[in-house]
Design goal:
binds pyridoxal-5'-phosphate, alpha+beta, about 25% helix, nine-stranded mixed β-sheet, D-amino Acid Aminotransferase, Chain A, domain 2, D-amino Acid Aminotransferase, Chain A, domain 1
Amino acid sequence: MATCAEAELTFSIQPNPAPASDETRAAVLANPGFGTHFTDHMVTIDWTEGTGWHDATIAARQPIALDPAAAVLHYAQEIFEGLKAYKQADGSIALFRPDANAERFNQSAERLAMPTLPEDLFIAAIEKLVELDKGWIPEAEGASLYLRPFMIATEAFLGVRPAKTYKFIVIASPAGNYFKSGAPAVSIWVSEYTRAAPGGTGAAKCGGNYAASLVPQGEALARGHDQVVFLDAAEHKWIEELGGMNLFYVFDDGTILTPALTGTILPGITRKSLIALLREEGLTVNEGRYSLDQWRADAASGKLVETFACGTAAVVTPVGKVAGKDGEFTIGTGGPGQLTRKVKDRLVAIQRGQAPDTHGWIRKIG
Ligand SMILES: *Cc1c(COP(=O)(O)O)cnc(C)c1O
């Protein structure tokens, strides 16, 4: 619950005295790429034990000073979120389900023994930043302003316990179309490493999970694949998810399966949205387990017709090929499947205001 002080927290807005020039910004927006260019401002809100959240500020984006003993640098008390602001068909700006990100952020905070942030404050921080930096939203098809809220433990203390001070920060980065000419099917490598174990932090969006996925991801790349897919830690049999995307399987009887949220899988907001859209179409979406052996057998028999991965960054990505220590197999024709294309188009149309938002997923800004 927000304390009174937090609910009334007002943002001190200090505009960047030296923002990027119009020419620099135009050059970035013409070719934003992903994650390398940033807007003029950032949000910071501090938390101190006993006081709660305080000093909400929007100011010039700049390096942050941290004591070398800051807890985040040693024990990785860090969580993050990722969401996008889109230019709508009518020229307005909208966020997609920021309330879901706020809720998940707090679930991650609880798992990492960090303070939760009132959901209204999380959303207000993002809205104010987008409003101030709205000149940085690229307008090309598939482009957006990617928002990265995160929280770090700032207390200078080397003992192992939850820190007593934290910083919540939001930065923004213009993002181009993840895949320039439609989404090509990706090839994925089944890792021998595990991403998440029962009782671990797999369902939390924390930097530590990503640090642990870099070696397996590097192995996938070195073997000529695009992404890594992880199996469960206990039996090394059940397919969980990619490094940063959830999976869906489409069968020839029209049913769809996605791994159930067992605690070792990150509860994706794209995943949740696609389940709703598919069910609305009258399709059966089951949440359950699917083994690597079954996946291979169903791909060979033709029972499995499509597989796709989903997440905020790339939205929906078809999976064409799967390889592991026991050889490789192709799904369908190896290219993007029909339903994959259709659900992606439906979701993107809602996100961009080209289709009616019947679920209340769109939150307009300004
Ligand atoms: C963020 C993330 C996803 C996708 O979640 P979305 O809310 O759809 O962006 C999937 N898996 C992992 C491990 C993630 O970190």
